[in-house]
Amino acid sequence: MKTQLEVACKLYNTLLHAEQEEYEKNKRTMNKTELRQLALDLRKKNKEFQV
Fold this sequence. Notes:
By secondary structure, the protein is mostly helical. The chain has helices at 4-26, 32-45.
C-alpha cells in the first residue's frame, strides 16, 4: 500500500508537469485556483492519487 507521502509526491509531480505543459502551450502559468481544481479532479478520478 502506498503511503500518503508517496501519493502526495506523485500528485505534486503530475501537477508540476501539467503546469509546464500549460506554459509551453500558452506561455502562461496556472494560478492557484486552477492548480487546486486540477488536484481535486485528479484525486477524484484516479485511484493512484487516493490513499
